[in-house]
Amino acid sequence: MTKQVQQLDRVIIRFAGDSGDGMQLTGDRFTAETAQFGNDLSTLPNFPAEIRAPAGTLPGVSSFQLHFADHDILTPGDAPNVLVAMNPAALKANLADLPRGADIIANIDEFTKRNLVKVGYAGNPIEDDSLAEWRLHAVPLTSLTVRALEGFDISKKDAERAKNMFALGLLSWLYSRPTEGTIAFLEAKFARKPEIAKANIAAFQAGWNYGETTESFSTSYEIKPATLRPGTYRNISGNQALAYGLIAASVQARLPLFLGSYPITPASDILHELSRHKHFGIRTFQAEDEIAGVAAALGAAFGGSLGVTTTSGPGVALKAETVGLAVTTELPLIVVDVQRAGPSTGMPTKTEQTDLLMAMFGRNGESPVPVFAPATPSDCFTMAVEAARIAVKYRTPVMLLSDGYLANGSEPWRIPEIDELPDISVRFTTAPNGDDGTMYLPYLRDPATLARPWAVPGTPGLEHRIGGIEKADGSGNISYNPNNHDRMVRLRQAKIDGIDVPPLEVDDPDGDARVLVLGWGSTYGPIAAAVRRVRKDGGKVAQAHLRHLNPLPANTCEVLRSYDKVLLPEINLGQLAMLLRARFLVDVITYNQVRGLPFKAAELAAVIQDVIDSD
Predict the structure, then answer these.
(1) 46, 64, 593, 600 from 596: Cα distances, Å
(2) 502 CB contacts (<8 Å, ≥6 apart)?
(3) Angle (CA) 31 33 38, round 5°
(4) Which residues does 65 contact at the CB level (< 8 Å), separation at least 6?
(5) Residue 1 pLDDT grade (very low, low, confident, very high; cuts 50, 70, 90)
(6) Is the whole model's pTM more than 0.90, yes or no?
(7) For a designed S-S bond to 549, which of 289, 337, 371, 470 qualifies (C-beta 3.0 to 4.6 A apart)?
(8) 6 pLDDT more than 60
(9) Closest Cα partner for 67 from 35, 36, 39, 41?
């Protein structure tokens, strides 16, 4: 049977199943092969917070969405073209997102009466024509997998577990993905269990062969590689990129990296990744709690290391006092907040931008710190290096606001050349700096940066006090003098205000747009995709994106006042909007959704068009 091959410019696939069905692994492998093939891509893993929700229930559904194309893309896509549903719960949880005419590949073996009742289906949707508006492919994935593995010395349970590899093989055939990388991955992953490795490879190949031979699929699809800037690329998640950025910063600063951290979703992978790279002189310390983690990192900074702590919103709340200590001792410390849905425990595996005000003001006293936010998963690398540059240059703690969407999502990343990285090497003070040549003044400031000296403990003649009580200007002695306190408060604020950050860039192709869409952090992709849509339909709109939130770029006010209307979408209830209104008296238009999910490009395009039309 000769099958047609149809060319597509892009496709969005969502793998969905029970949290024990291996959907994240399946999605990761499909993504890896897609990246190897050379497509541009963006991913959105979505999984439950429970360690193991009851099997076959809606709370236990785990999914992985992948958008890949032959051109530059910006988001994981608004709605999937293909849904792989491993059970009724996966179908029910995701069907509302599926546009009419899209493909559904359903594992009919799991559509038993018991499983249907679990999720509230009165009848079987595979059989009752309720899915007539979609292209349904009913495939007995489980039984086909078990049959393909009959000759292997494994249990039936282990054979059934391999159904995700069968599904991966089928989708790999359907979209012309390479297979060699997955086979090598399975051989390495199960190197100590060769029979399991062979079984999973056989299931993967059986899925491919099923697509090739079955009459259920008469067409396969091909998406050509994207044209990307020359260089060496790899697929990378935000947490991986952030970890690699910290390693690069450590090398460029010529400082040992110390991470003091307590595991917390969705930041834990940074700890896991850094712990694999001890050969770079990296020390990772899994503390007993959040406070111990940041305190150890600050102690390491005092000792001359690049001190880092990683956490999410609940951990930032616990670390606040020690961050305040870093402010008053004026030591470089990087605090990474991978934001998640709150308050309290909230929805740990869902994303939000709701920690901005806490990062800005969530400490007692006047405690200013720089606040930065990466825009994309790969930008987490760049902003980690930037956070380190600012921390060591200005002797200050820095808050870096990633979020769950960036942390778990992935995209192609061009690996930078060494000479593209900034030199952020540090000069430690090694001799007395007082006028008489015998005294060390730990708070004698650099006139250009207002940064105080940094002396490694144990350096002869440079003994000095450190602690949380207010310091006397210059000498660093304990001081309760009112005028000195006022001066130190203003000096610390002036230091942050004077940090050198690049100007805010505006994308306004014709220069005649009257509406500006402003964003920060992970909203970059959806906003940029929405702006593209509006421009394609003839709308005139400008876009700007903030990665430096404190201090803001020097031209921020000028940019905001250059447009009749400024629209600011945020995944919170308007935190940056409040800051901009207070500082610049610009009445920005807000669009806010706090659903634990990133914006969709289509919804933002509609909002932008409404703002343009209301002009």
Answers:
(1) 10, 15, 9, 12
(2) 548, 553
(3) 95
(4) 12, 13, 14, 15, 27, 43, 44, 45, 46, 76, 77, 80
(5) low
(6) yes
(7) 371
(8) yes
(9) 41
